[in-house]
Amino acid sequence: MRFFFSSTIGRSFAIFAIALTAACSDSNNSTPEPEPVVTTPPDPEPVVNAAFEVSVVNLTLGQPLSPIAAVVHDGDFRAFTVGEAATDGLELLAEEGDNSGFLEEASGRAEASGEAPVGPGASDTLLIELDGDDVSSAAITVMTMLVNTNDAIAGVNSLDISALAVGDSVVMNSVAYDAGTEANTEQAGTIPGPADGGEGFNDARDDISDQVTMHGGVVTASDGLATSVLSEVHRFDNPVLRLRVTRTQ
Amino acid sequence: MKKPLTSLSLLAALAAPASATDFDVEIINLTRGSWFTPFLVAAHADSARLFMSGEPASASLQSMAEGGDIAALQADVEALNATIAANPAGGLLAPGQRTMASLNTDDAPDNTQLSIVAMILPSNDGFMGLNAITIPTEPGRYVYNVNAYDSGTEGNDEVVGSGAPGEPGFPAPPPVLAASGSNGTGITASPEGFVHIHRNVLGDDDISGGASDIVNTVHRWLNPVVRVVLTVN
Predict the structure, then answer these.
(1) Fewest CB within 10 angstroms: A59, A157, A204, B64, which?
(2) Nearest CA in chain A to B34
(3) C-alpha span between B30 and B37 (Å, rounded)
C-alpha cells in the first residue's frame, strides 16, 4: 500500500511540473518549445524474499513428534555436536518438546514452529520466508522430540541450502539422537508423551554422559526393562523421520 | 625408469585431474555407550577385502572382532601393499568421541579403496565395518555412515570373559568393565557362521545378575554406529 501511495504522489508532482513548464512556455511565445516528454518514473525493482517449505513425515509407529522447529540461519550455527553437551534450549526441546528456547538460541534469519505435535504416520509443513533473497550462506536446521522417550530428538543439523534454486528440493532421512541430558529410565513419570504423561523438563543432567550421541532405541517393558512405562509399540528404528526442504521463491 | 620431464609432459601433468592421493579420515563414535578397540584404517587395491557379508570371517577378522587385535589383519593388508593407519585413537575410542588419521597413496596408486574396522565393546564379536568404499578423486568432504556387523565367529552370550579367538565372553578393559554388569549367567547362543549386520545387543536390567552383563538402557545401539568424514585434499 505504501508503494501505491508514493507512486501516485510522484505522478501528481510530475503532472504539476509539466503544467508549470507549459505556463512558462506560454509567457515566451517567440520560440516554439518542444512538446514536453511525459515520463513515468520506473517502478523500483521488486524484492522477492526467498522462501522455503519444510515438510516432515513421522516414520515411526508409536512416537509422536513435538511441534517441529525450523530455522534458517547462516552456516555457522549447529544445533548440537556429537560428543558435546546439549545447550539448555536443546535440553528443553529434548525433554519436553518445547522448542521456544532452542529457536531463541538459534537466533536465525527466520524461523517457524509447528502448531501441534505430528503423530505417527502424519506429516506437517512449515513455511519460512526470509527478509531478502540472499541465500549465499543459508543453512537450515529442523529439530523435534520423539515424545514417548526421555530425551530423543531428530531432525537435520545445519543443512546447506545455499545452492537450492527456486523449485528445487532436498530430501533426507533423520536418525534419532539422544540429547544426553536425561537418563533413559523409561520409568512412569519421566516421559512427557501420551504413553506416560510424565515430567518434561528437569534441569538435572543425569544421563550416563552429558553429551549428545545417537539414540540406542527404547528398550520397553516388552523387551526386558521391567520398570519401563513403554511397550513394544513405542520401539523405533532408524530413520525416524523424512524431511523435504523446497525453495518456493 | 624415469624419463626427464619435457615441457609437454609437464603440461600433461599439470592438466591431470586431482587424484585422491592425500586424504584425512575422521572417525566419530556415534554410540551412546559403546567403545571401539583400535581401528585399522586401510587404503587398498580393489582386489582386497577385509570381510564379505554372508561369508565366514577370516581368522584375522575373528581376532579383531572377538578381541580387538588388529595385528593379523594389518599383516594381511600390508602383504598386499595397502596404505594403512593403525590405532589412530591410541587405544579405546569412547562413546561420542572422535579420532583422525591421514593417509597418502602417492606411492601406491592402486590403493583406491578404503576400509576401516574396529571391535565394539561391550559385544562378543561385533565390529564397525566400512567395507571397501571407492576413495573419491575430487577434492572435498565426504560423509559415510557406518553400520555394526557381527563376525559370526562367537556366540553372543553377553558376559564378561575372554578376548581370545574362540573363547566365550567379551573382553572388558577398565572403562568397559565399569559400565558393564556382572555375574550374568550368559545368554544361550552359538556362533552364527557368517558375517552379517549385527542384530544389536540384548542386555538386561539387572546390573549384578540376570542373563547378560550388558546393560539394556545403555549399550544398545541403532545403526549407524560410526560416522566417517573423508576429506580429500
Answers:
(1) A204
(2) A216
(3) 14
Q: Which residues on B lie below 8 Å from A183 (Cβ)?
A: 217
Number of CB atoms found within 10 A of residue A150's CB: 28
Separation CA A129–CA B8 (nearest Å)? 54
From the list B109, B154, B115, the residue with the least C-alpha distance to B131 is B115
CB B122 within 8 A of CB B180: yes
Report the residue from A82, A180, A226 with minimal CB separation from B28. A82
Chain A, nearest residue to B205 by Cα = A225
Q: At what angle do helices B71-78 and B59-67 cross, to 10 degrees?
A: 140
Question: Could you check whether the bond before residue B122 is cis, i.e. omega within 30 degrees of 0?
Answer: yes
Distances (CA, A) of B215 to B108, B115, B121, B135: 45, 30, 12, 37
Residue B126 has phi, psi (to 5 degrees) of -90, 145
Average pLDDT, chain B: 93
**CA nearest to B94 within chain A:** A83
Determine if residue B176 is left, alpha or beta; phi over 0 gives left, psi from -120 to 50 gives alpha, anything else beta: alpha
For residue A51, the tally of other CB atoms under 10 A from its CB is 17
Q: Number of C-alpha atoms within 13 angstroms, CB side, residue A207?
A: 29
The angle subtended at Cα B83 by Cα B80 and Cα B86, nearest 5°, is 110
Q: What is the pLDDT of residues B63-119, one digit of tens each?
A: 999 999 999 999 999 999 999 999 999 999 999 999 999 999 999 999 999 999 999
Residue carrying the nine cell digits 585399522: B40
Place of cell 525433554: A95
pLDDT of residue B90: 98
Beta strands A152-160 and A176-178, pairing class: antiparallel
User: Would you call A214 and B224 a contact, using CB atoms and an 8 Å cutoff?
Assistant: yes
- Mean pLDDT for B196-222 is 97
For residue A44, what pLDDT is reported?
76
Cβ–Cβ < 8 Å for B216, A224? yes
How many angstroms separate the CA atoms of A246 and B4, rounded?
A: 55
Chain A residues whose CB is inside 8 A of the B216 CB are 219, 223-225
Confidence of residue B6 (pLDDT cuts 50, 70, 90): very low
Residue in the structure block whose three cell numbers are 573423508: B230
pTM: 0.86
Pairing of strands B113-121, B40-44: antiparallel
